[in-house]
Predict the 3D structure of the following.
Amino acid sequence: MDATTARLIDFAAQADFSGLPAATLHEAKRRLIDTFACAVGAYEEPVSRMARTHASRYVAAAGSPAASVWGCSSPTTVEAAAFANGVMLRVEDISDMYRFKSGGHPSDVIAAVIAMGEGLHADGAAVINAVVLAYDVYCTFCEAVDVNSKGWDQPVYSVMACALGASKLLHLDREQMGNALALALVPNMALDQTRHGELSSWKGCAGANASRNGVFAALLAQDGFTGPTGVFEGKGGLYEIVGRFDWRLPATGDARTSISRTHMKCFPVCYHGQSAVWAAVDMRTRVRVQDIAEIRIETYEHAAHIMGADPSKWAPSTRETADHSLPYVVAIGLLDGEVTSASFSGVRLRDPEVARLMAMVKVDENAELSAQYPESAPCRLTVRMQSGEVVVTNIRYPKGHNMSPLSDAEVEQKFRGMFREYGSTSQCASALDGLWNFERARDVADVLKLFEKRA
C-alpha cells in the first residue's frame, strides 16, 4: 500500500471511543438526532418509497450480516439498507453540511456505519466511534483539496469515509483495511454532473450510493478481495488525477472535532441558500410583498454558481431543481415566511405568484461576500419597492451554522417537527431518548426498533 493509505489506516486503527472528548460525543448524538429527523421527515417522499422497494428485493444469506431499512421490520442486506436509509436522510436536503475546499453532506456516512453496526450487532459506543471516524475522514478531505471544481462529486470522499467506518466495525486487519479503501475509491469516482442543470432524483441518491459502495468494499475486503496498492500515489491514482495534496488527519483525542464543525440546516434547501431564506423570512416582516418591484440577491461565488447561474433556476420543474434555486426559495420565503417540504409540491412549482416573484429576481456574486466564504455563508437581500424605497437584509451566519448553532432544544424541536407525520408523540419521545442515550445501547438494533412504523 502507498504512504497515504497507510496514514489513513493508522488513523482508523487508533480511533477509539474511550478517547472521544465529551463534547465530541455530545455533538455526535446531536448529528444522529438531526439525521434521523431528516430520514423520518422524508419517509413518504416518492424517492424514499422507491428506495425501500429496491431494498426489499434483497435478503441476506444465512450467516451474513443483515440490517433494516429504518421504519421497517423486515431485514435486508447491509448494502441495500445503507442505500435506502441514505436516500431517506438526504432526499429532502435538510441534513448537515460541511464545506472548505470541497464540500458535501457528512451525515451521508451515518447510513453506512449504522447499517454495518446493526448487521454486526455492534454496541452504540462502537457505532458512534465509527461515525466520528468517518466524519473525520470526510471533513479533513474537504479541507485538503478542491475536487468538486475538477468535476468530481461528493461520493469520491464519502465512499472512503464509509469504507473506513465500516472496516472499523468489522475489525479488519491492516491489509484488509487497505484493500477496503482501494476497493471503495477506484471503482467509484463520481461525476459532479449530478449537481448541474435540471436536477434529477439522483441528486439525493449519490451520497446513499457511496454508503452502499463503502459497505460493499469493506465486505469484499473481509472476504479476501484485494485492491490496487497505489490508489493515491501510484500511476493512475488519485493524486495523478486531481493533483498532489496534503491530507492532514486530526490527532486522536481532543483533536477529533470534525463532527462538531459541520453545519445543520433549518430549511430543506441547498445549504448555499440557507442565508437567503433567512433573509427573505426577515424581509417579509418589513415589507408588503405585493408592493415589491425588484429583488436582488447578492451572495458568494459558489452559491451564485450552484443556485443562480442556470436558467432552470428561474423555471424549476422538479423538487431537486427548486431546492437548489435561489429565485425559488427566496420567493417562497417572502410569500410564506418559511420553506418546508410542502413548498416543493407540484401545485407550488406551478404557482403563478411564485413565478411572478421569481421573475423579479437577479442573482449576483459579490466579491466582498465571496471573500467571507467558507468561514461564513453570507447573503445580502435587497428589495426595491414600487414606491422607490430600498430595503436591505444581511445574513452572515444562517441559524445552524457552527458559528450560530442550534441549541439542543432546537435540535429536538426539528426532530419532533419532522416526526409529526411519521409516528405518535409517545413514539417520538422514545426514539429521541434512544438517540440521546445511543452510546449506552448494547445492540444498536434496539434503538432502530424504536423507529419501526406502527399501525
Observations:
- The radius of gyration is 22 Å.
